[in-house]
Specification:
- This protein starts with 10 loop residues before the first helix and ends in a 10-residue tail after the last helix.
- Helix 1 packs across helix 2, helix 2 packs parallel to helix 4 and helix 3 packs antiparallel against helix 4.
- 52% of the residues lie in helices and 4% in strands.
- The radius of gyration is 16 Å and the shape is globular.
- The chain has a two-stranded antiparallel ribbon with strand order 1-2.
- It is mainly α.
Length: 192
């Protein structure tokens, strides 16, 4: 079973994804190109014709792209704070790749139904993070990027213990809890 096909990507997928991922301007070009390629492949394999309509989660008003940009911003801020404290050692280039790529498999785990998105059949076959990890491995990303992206979901059976995983976790949770609070939902930190 093929979860994605690399040959369905068109240049407009790459160009549009690049235009929406605002923090890419500070990423080295080679890395930025690989991040864009991963986004373009999964978008081209999704049922979504407009990238901005993919939600961060079904029923939420925030887009996946906006969430990713939030996570990149928050993750870089946390990383800077940790550097000032000399509290963690991490690779900033790997961290950027992880922050930009952590949720890309939601492009194929969700599917559009009219004006809304729902969890698609693939989301009942593969846990969140796994399809992204398979693609990132195929594209030659560092094993540490693959590992963190594959195991970052809160319901994953285990999590990578590196500093980049820690930064992603708190940036991801802060970003999603902000949206949940804004939308009148209970933030994850208050769910027992």
């Amino acid at each position: 079973m093929a979860f994605f096909k690399r040959d369905v990507v068109k240049q407009n997928h790459r160009d549009h994804a690049r235009s929406l991922l605002t923090g890419l301007k500070t990423v080295p070009l080679h890395s930025a190109d690989r991040i864009v390629e991963a986004w373009a492949i999964l978008w081209a394999n999704s049922g979504f014709s407009v990238l901005e309509t993919v939600p961060v989660s079904p029923g939420m008003s925030h887009s996946l792209v906006a969430h990713t940009n939030d996570v990149v911003h928050l993750g870089r801020s946390l990383a800077n704070a940790y550097q000032e404290l000399s509290a963690l050692s991490f690779d900033p280039h790997l961290l950027d790749e992880i922050l930009f790529l952590h949720d890309i498999d939601k492009l194929v785990l969700f599917q559009p139904i009219g004006e809304r998105a729902v969890r698609g059949p693939l989301s009942r076959q593969m846990p969140h993070g796994v399809v992204a990890g398979m693609l990132l491995h195929d594209l030659g990303f560092d094993d540490r990027v693959v590992s963190v992206v594959t195991t970052h979901a809160t319901d994953a059976p285990f999590h990578n213990e590196c500093a980049e995983a820690l930064i992603l976790h708190y940036a991801d949770m802060a970003a999603i809890d902000y949206v949940r609070m804004r939308d009148g939902q209970t933030p994850f930190f208050q769910i027992k």
